[in-house]
Design brief:
Helix content is 68%, strand content 0%. It has 313 residues and is mainly alpha-helical.
Length: 313
């Protein structure tokens, strides 16, 4: 990434000055972070709505993979660091105007929280699980009293994390395609859609799958509106941003974006979810898999196309 994205004091020298188009670390990190945010959001929201008995997958099962997603995403981010031994400098300062700075602190809060939430429910998923040390058993009993507070924290932090995955790009003014406030909400909604898709994939309850398929339909509709709004904003702006939009409207990224993201990742899953909810013979796992495919393609295409777009002097 660039120093403009970080601009956080001594943390400025941590990231490579340019994200080369063949690198996959940052798009993968953004996808995993958004996916984790979506799962945590629904886990916390379902608990607060007291629907955990109806939707156990969203509260107990899907959150078990969130620690893995976050650790893997942080590993990918670590691979992109220019000076890897100095990653700790991200935590020696707080600069609210630098997305990389507050994003690092949000991840520091949400990662241990995801481990705790998973640990509190692991016995319900794996009945034979047993904590070997008395200290862990006492910690489990004590923390169980504060699940509601943790649920509120997860909902808030998940929204911040989901928005951060988009703002990390949009805060970089050097690339006109990334220089839009739509990326934050777009990546947030995409991450939530991915979280709903994971719950559908992991659930054994038809009622729960149908409920989150309906949620995903709403999120897909919002995502399509945000994409249209993003291009309308570009086309109504400067010639440079019009040129950036043309990358997807006849340019080299037209086919990948509209086929892989819009058609395969949004429109087809919405149609399949509608058909499956009407008891048509559609394999229920097809739609969520396509949603996840579209989510990761969105981040890769935005990352790569953003490096092609340039301001004209």
């Amino acid at each position: 990434m660039t120093e403009d994205i970080i601009s956080s004091g001594r943390a400025n020298h941590l990231i490579d000055p340019v994200l080369e188009v063949w690198e996959w670390h940052i798009p993968s990190y953004l996808f995993l972070g958004g996916l984790a945010a979506g799962i945590l959001f629904f886990a916390g929201l379902t608990w607060l709505r007291k629907k955990e008995a109806m939707h156990p997958t969203s509260v107990k099962i899907a959150p078990l993979i969130v620690p893995l997603l976050l650790v893997l995403g942080l590993f990918f981010l670590f691979l992109d660091l220019k000076h890897k031994l100095y990653f700790w400098r991200l935590y020696t300062t707080i600069k609210l105007g630098a997305p990389m700075s507050w994003g690092a602190w949000v991840l520091m809060a949400v990662t241990p929280l995801s481990f705790i939430w998973a640990a509190l429910h692991i016995k319900e998923v794996f009945p034979n699980w047993d904590w070997k040390f008395d200290l862990l058993k006492r910690a489990e009993q004590w923390l169980s009293q504060y699940k509601t507070w943790m649920a509120w924290a997860m909902v808030v932090l998940a929204v911040v994390l989901g928005v951060y995955t988009g703002i990390l790009f949009s805060a970089f003014n050097g690339r006109p395609l990334w220089n839009t406030s739509i990326l934050g909400p777009l990546f947030l909604v995409s991450g939530m859609s991915g979280g709903a898709a994971v719950i559908v994939l992991m659930s054994r309850s038809k009622e729960e799958r149908h409920y989150f398929a309906k949620v995903d339909l709403l999120l897909i509709a919002i995502e399509l509106v945000l994409i249209v709004h993003m291009f309308m904003g570009f086309l109504a702006s400067t010639q440079t941003q019009i040129d950036a939009a043309q990358l997807f409207l006849g340019g080299e990224y037209t086919a990948p974006f509209w086929i892989f993201v819009v058609i395969m990742g949004l429109i087809l899953p919405a149609l399949f979810e509608l058909m499956e909810m009407r008891n048509k013979k559609i394999p229920w796992m097809v739609a969520p898999v396509l949603v996840l495919f579209g989510g990761i393609m969105l981040r890769f295409i935005i990352a790569y196309a953003g490096q092609v777009s340039q301001w004209k002097l």
